[in-house]
């Protein structure tokens, strides 16, 4: 009934190598790369699996582009809250404590679940000014 049609692909093209010829890197490029990346012999397991930025933190802005520093009232007391902290919250707390040396350390509270820093008192304006310059 039906004729079976068999086709065979025939090509007159020769296979082409897709790899580009490699040029050796210039000595200045090699010296710049060795300053940034260590030699493979110098890398060990601790470098690969540890946290490389233990004392680093970042505060992401809100969707409108503002710094997330808020003045709130908790049981008739003024509290300044800093939210959206990524990284080391305790390092951020230590840096903010250096900004306000007149405040005792007991006024600073780290909330690890919500990654929020609470400061007793209204320090929102100077803190926003500092964070706008930094982040």
UniProtKB/TrEMBL annotation:
It is found in: Mitochondrion. Coiled coil: none annotated. Transmembrane segments: none annotated. Its main location: mitochondrion. One of its GO terms (cellular component) is mitochondrial large ribosomal subunit. GO terms for biological process: translation. Gene3D superfamilies: SUI1-like domain. InterPro entries: Ribosomal_mL49. Keywords: Mitochondrion, Ribonucleoprotein, Ribosomal protein. It comes from the Eukaryota. One of its GO terms (molecular function) is structural constituent of ribosome. The keyword Mitochondrion applies. Belongs to the mitochondrion-specific ribosomal protein mL49 family. This is Large ribosomal subunit protein mL49. It comes from Ogataea parapolymorpha (strain ATCC 26012 / BCRC 20466 / JCM 22074 / NRRL Y-7560 / DL-1).
């Amino acid at each position: 009934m039906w004729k079976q049609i068999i086709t065979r692909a025939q090509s007159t093209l020769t296979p082409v190598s897709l790899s580009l010829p490699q040029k050796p890197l210039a000595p200045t490029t090699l010296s710049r790369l060795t300053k940034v990346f260590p030699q493979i012999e110098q890398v060990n397991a601790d470098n690969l699996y540890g946290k490389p930025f233990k004392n680093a933190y970042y505060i992401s802005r809100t969707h409108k582009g503002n710094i997330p520093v808020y003045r709130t009232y908790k049981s008739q007391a003024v509290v300044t809250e800093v939210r959206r902290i990524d990284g080391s919250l305790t390092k951020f707390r230590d840096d903010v404590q250096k900004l306000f040396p007149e405040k005792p350390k007991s006024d600073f509270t780290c909330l690890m679940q919500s990654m929020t820093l609470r400061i007793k008192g209204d320090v929102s304006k100077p803190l926003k000014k500092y964070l706008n310059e930094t982040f």
